[in-house]
Amino acid sequence: MKIRLILHSFRCVLLTALLLSACQPVQPPAQVHDGTEILWDTWGIPHIVVQKDSDAFYAFGWAQMRSHADLLLKLYAVARGRGAEIFGESYLPADRSVRMLGIPGLAEKWYMEQDAAFRANLDAFAAGINDFARQHPETISDMVKAVLPVTPQDVIAHTTRVMTVFIAGTSECSAVLPGFDFFDQPVASNGWALGPTYSASGNAMLLANPHLSWHGLEMFYESHFLLPNVNLYGTALVGSPVLQIAFNDHLGWTHTVNTMDGCDLYQLKRAGATLDDGYLLDGLAQPFNVTIEVIQIRQQDGSMTSESLFIRRSKQGPVIETDDQILAVRFALLETSLLAGMNRQWWEMGHARNLKEFEDVLRGQHLPLFNVIYADADKHIMLAFNGIIPVRTTGDVIFWRAPVPGDDSSLIWSETHSYADLPKSIDPASGWVQNANGAPWYMTMPFLDKSHYSPNIAADVTNNRELRGLQMLNAHKQMSYAELIAAKHSTRALVADQLLDELVAAARGSGDQLLQQAADVLDRWDRQYLAASQGAWLFGIWFEKWLERTIAKAADADTDNNFTYGQLVGGLFYAQPFDPAQPLTTPHGLADVPLALLALHDAAGKLQATEGALDVAWGDIARLRRGKIDLPGNGAGTVLGVFREIVYEPDEDGKLKSFSGDTYIALVEFSQPVRAQVLTTYGNATQNSVFEIGDQLRLAAKQQLRPAWRTLDEIESNVAMREVLVPYSSSSDQI
Predict the structure, then answer these.
(1) 479 Rama class: left (phi>0) / alpha (psi -120 to 50) / beta
(2) Is the dihedral of CA 351, 381, 171, 271 positive or negative?
(3) Which of 12, 15, 186, 350 is deepest in the core (most CB within 10 A)?
């Protein structure tokens, strides 16, 4: 029977006696009992109250199934390389890549390498998933039930695949790995830590603000663990057994995707007429290591076919044939055993109590990428550029971003950088650290000296969203908690400040009537991407047309020109490109004014034809949509220099719907007690059997956050459902 909750009610939910030892009206308990309890608040956040780690992992697996069962099981099927077997041919590309990279085999190996305590935690997480499925089969779609039972090896395979997708998406490798090309735009996030000299209260503050897709493997799950030794609140990507962005009473951290390069391509040379003859390395023929895997493929009528996948591996890594090239793929995170400790490292980060303990955990180097932005109750802040990054003894970033020669063994790296090698800033004089996916040198001001680091450790790029953040940080001598919230929600378009005055003046001087009308609208525009902002659509379409015309012009002039997002703040577009010596005033000015006017004419004509007006409000077309919720949108993309990033895509009715950008948000002040406001923008569930899908979008539409309930009194005052589970036992029956 489907369980449907009336939020804020105190109705008792009948759960199966095999798993539940109590079901009672919501009321504050006299004390925390010895069992495993999940208190679900009115926003669908699970507060897991337990006495030991294994029970916490068990309850976390259970909770994720209640909120995301279908999604979680699909993700695990793909991590096995068996998505096509259950869900059909569309999953075949991802299965091929998972099998080729050997992820299921690595998961088996790395499971055995866990220490006994953490292996038991992974066992418990998988058991929680399976026990929920056994007790609540009615909440799971029939097709995904074929994935059950889940194993702890599935958990490792899934988290490995997710990190491999991230690494591929930030390197040249995604282009050659089918099913791993998820990022159709640069991954994005904002992260700030404010120290005691910059914070108006004198307390350190943390802004956690990842921007990812609102679907699939990039979805976050907000959760809370209340154990005797830690009060840990944060979020995890669905399917993860641990919180990956979190804070406790002593400290907290967030992540942003960094500009490290963790994957390389090698262009191999055949040793003969066919691949059976091997490849050349240092002038000698080398045989490929060849294995064959059979992939089952479900057809639409339910019948099964199969494909034999020939996997060739060179000394560099697995081999892909593409066009007229033979490429070997080498992922740093798959070439060492460091990744085996990734989930344990995140768990230990959440239990650290001060900067020394936290850095001791980071030195393990188990996280394959991400900047780590940190703040604590002792008033320390830090940003560490982090990752499993190859030690490349030659070449710069540009050299390694293209396929490198595959016949030179000296280019096959085997070591990775230590924590000491990596850029970081601790308690800088500025009083703050920040990252919005730019190079590590820009983490604070004055900027770090990049000559102190390996020339191929990080791409030297920034973006207008990051530059907007630097402007806001430099506009304050100190920042209050309220000002931090306002800055996080800023929708002002930095690109408008860089270019709009010149564009409007040129349009007014053109003599063209349509351009004159466009100039009037743009001149009145508030340069914001708020729901009511009139002119935002015209500017956004102009910007798109301006990019298209500028890139086409560059391609005509140089057929070898390969546009990258890093060029968006460069001389291709701006009269004065970005200059690290002038980060608050560059880039600025139109590189080609006539071309910009042509783009404005294109934009005005398009908007007039489709909407019948040039001053249409942003939220009339841009919509925040999830489930049954449909609200006027606010926020826009990185390319426009908007700090409050929400990206929209076409919907069936001709409007645009939100699909990426602000996901989990946390603003934490390490006062006594800790103060935190949070939001999971798209809501905390994809299953519609319990909590409303997309419920938190109502707050996002009003640019509001909600308090993070972390004490038992707060939680008990806002409980929608209580589940008391039998304490996990490793000997308990599983499906």
Answers:
(1) beta
(2) negative
(3) 350
Report H helices in 212-321: none
Q: Which of 383, 382, 384, 386 is nearest to 369 (CA)?
A: 386
| Rama region for 254: left / alpha / beta (φ>0; ψ in -120 to 50; rest) | beta
Query: Is residue 673 situated within a structural domain?
Result: no
User: Which tokens hold the place of 706?
Assistant: 């909600």
Closest CA to 647 of 175, 234, 215: 215
Distances, alpha carbon 284 to alpha carbons 266, 295, 404, 409, 619, in Å: 16, 34, 18, 11, 63
How many Cα atoms within 13 Å fall on the side-chain side of residue 162?
Answer: 27
> How many domains does the chain contain in total?
2
Q: Which residues on adjacent β-strands are paired with residue 259? A: none
- Of residues 171, 152, 188, 130, the one with CA closest to residue 79: 152
Closest listed residue to residue 353, CA positions, set 371, 380, 376, 386:
376
Amino acid in position 542: W
What H or E segment, with its residue span, contains residue 519? helix 513-524
Strands 646-650 and 284-286: unpaired
CA distance 83 to 87: 6
Q: How many CA atoms lie within 13 A of 228 on its CB side?
A: 10
Share of the chain above pLDDT 70, in %: 94
Please state the φ and ψ torsions of residue 404, each to the nearest 5 degrees: -95, 160
Q: Give per-residue pLDDT as tens, 534-583.
A: 999 999 999 999 999 999 999 999 887 778 888 999 999 999 999 999 99
- Say whether the peptide bond before residue 587 is cis (omega within 30 degrees of 0): yes
Residue with tokens 């909770």: 63
Q: What is the CATH number of the domain that holds 603?
A: 1.10.1400.10
294 found inside a domain: yes
Q: Model confidence over 434-454: pLDDT tens digits?
A: 999 999 999 999 999 999 999
pLDDT digits (tens, 9 = 90+) for 667-678: 999 999 999 999
Q: Span 320-347, mean pLDDT?
A: 95
What range defines the domain where residue 605 resides? 494-642
Q: 3-state DSSP call for residue 309?
A: strand
Where among 596, 612, 642 does a domain terminate? 642
What span, in angstroms and rounded, lies between the C-alpha atoms of 678 and 708? 6
| pLDDT tens-digit map of 221-271 | 999 999 999 999 999 999 999 999 999 999 999 999 999 999 999 999 999
Helix (H) or strand (E) holding 353: none
SS (H, E, C) 687-726: CCCCCCCCCCHHHHHCCCCEECCCCHHHHHCCEEEEEEEC
The answer to the question of residue 315 being in a domain is yes
Rounded-to-integer distance, Cα 719 and Cα 25, Å: 10
Instruction: Say how far apart CA 547 and CA 639 lie, in whole Å.
Output: 10
Whether the pLDDT of residue 103 is over 80: the answer is yes
Q: What is the pLDDT of residues 135-188, one digit of tens each?
A: 999 999 999 999 999 999 999 999 999 999 999 988 889 889 988 865 555 678
The order of strands in the sheet holding 404-405 is 319-322, 325-331, 263-267, 404-405
DSSP letters of 406-443? SS-GGG----B--GGGS-EEES-TTSEEEESSS-GGGS
Report how far apart, in Å, the C-alpha atoms of 73 and of each of 78, 154, 702 are.
Answer: 9, 10, 34
CATH number of the domain enclosing 314? 2.30.120.10
Out of 318, 334, 350, pick the residue that ends a domain. Answer: 334
Give the span between the Cα atoms of 436 and 371, in whole angstroms: 10
